[in-house]
Amino acid sequence: MFHYTEQELAHMPLVEGAIEVTAAVDPSFPAGWVKVQLDRLAQEAEEALLDEPNASLRLDGLIRLFYREWGFRGDHEQYFSSDNVFLDKVLERRKGIPVSLGAIFLYLADKLELPVRGVGFPTQFVLKVEWYDAEPQFINPFDGEYLSKRVMGAWLKGHRGPFSELRSEYFNTAETIDILARWLTVMKSALLREGLFTEALRCSDVVLDAFRPGDPHEIRDRGYIYQQLECSHAAAMDYEYFIEQCPEDPAAELLKLQVAELHKEPLTLH
């Protein structure tokens, strides 16, 4: 069982929350090593930018350090790999996706007292720089490039259709709890794609413990995982819960057939 409440997670920096939820999903996750590596990078960044008093130039220096000198970059070739969401693998490979790279960058920016925040833009995680005397700037954590709202508008149209329009709430600073929930969704999808069903089950359990207790769609997904693990009766119970909670959902009728078949299978104790 996950030992943190939603309120406790909400007050954690994003990278610390990610470490805690990942350790719950994978007991072998080297949380201590990850923390040591993050501290080492923060110390290197502080030493490299110690003599730069201008915050804007310090931010440019961190971008240069992170993406050019240290070589962090988005993984174009294996975007949906679980290696891109587990922070130990991201730190080892210097590759990730926007949310994992962005979490590390946010950690370093905070150490350098830079006004960088996270934004849960509909298409991907984005970094927002909030200068007190200027309009916010936006950075793509996938490559460290500055983003215009025009580009983000094009992203949105590509994602939701040509009539989609930018809304002011899309640029609001994201709550840690919301980003962690999205992170876990990506993690679960990657684990399922790789056939790592035991880890995917732990991922689903963390979501249900700390983020979406009783959510019928998450419980339906957990039922699918149980089915892959040949826990037929547990799968049937989760499917039945979904059918009861969402009787009008198009998937409900199909799941009724699944439940009938699952109840025919002998009870297996794991």
From TrEMBL:
Pfam families on file: TPR_9, Transglut_core2
Similarity annotation: Belongs to the UPF0162 family.
Organism from which the protein derives: Photobacterium ganghwense
Protein name listed in UniProt: Protein SirB1 N-terminal domain-containing protein
Domain Protein SirB1 N-terminal: 34-184
Cited InterPro entries: SirB1_N (IPR032698)
